[in-house]
Amino acid sequence: MEALTRHHLIPRKQHRRKRIRRRFSRAEREGRILHVCPPCHRHIHRHFDEQTLAERLNTREALLAEPVIRDFVAWISRHPPGFKPRY
Fold first, then answer.
1. What is the pTM of this model?
2. CB count in 10 Å sphere of residue 52
3. Cβ-contact 2, 83 below 8 angstroms
4. How far apart are CA 32 and CA 24, in angstroms?
5. Rounded to whole angstroms, how far apart are CA atoms 65 and 55?
């Protein structure tokens, strides 16, 4: 089984922004972490910038509601563990 990576649902570079500091407590900013496989992690960052991730896609549910993420997760789940998609 491939090791999972930590995806910060509120990207660390966004933690210092006033808008993010007002909206989320320090514990929320630091604690919103999702463990994902490396291909999924790359896919998330390939399709969304950090501001969008912090402001709109900062929960597991919000990420999976995005068709580009939901479709990729469904597609990669049909492949064997350790599968590395070509980009």
1. 0.90
2. 13
3. no
4. 10
5. 15
Half-sphere exposure of residue 72: CA atoms within 13 angstroms, side-chain side = 23
Which amino acid is located at 60 in the chain? R
φ/ψ of 75, rounded to 5, equals -65, -50
| pLDDT tens digits in sequence order for the chain, 87 residues long | 578 999 999 999 999 999 999 999 999 999 999 999 999 999 999 999 999 999 999 999 999 999 999 999 999 999 988 888 887
Helix (H) or strand (E) holding 70: helix 67-76
Contact 58, 32 (CB under 8 A): yes
**Is 30 within 8 Å of 21 (Cβ atoms)?**
no
Structure tokens at 39: 């291909």
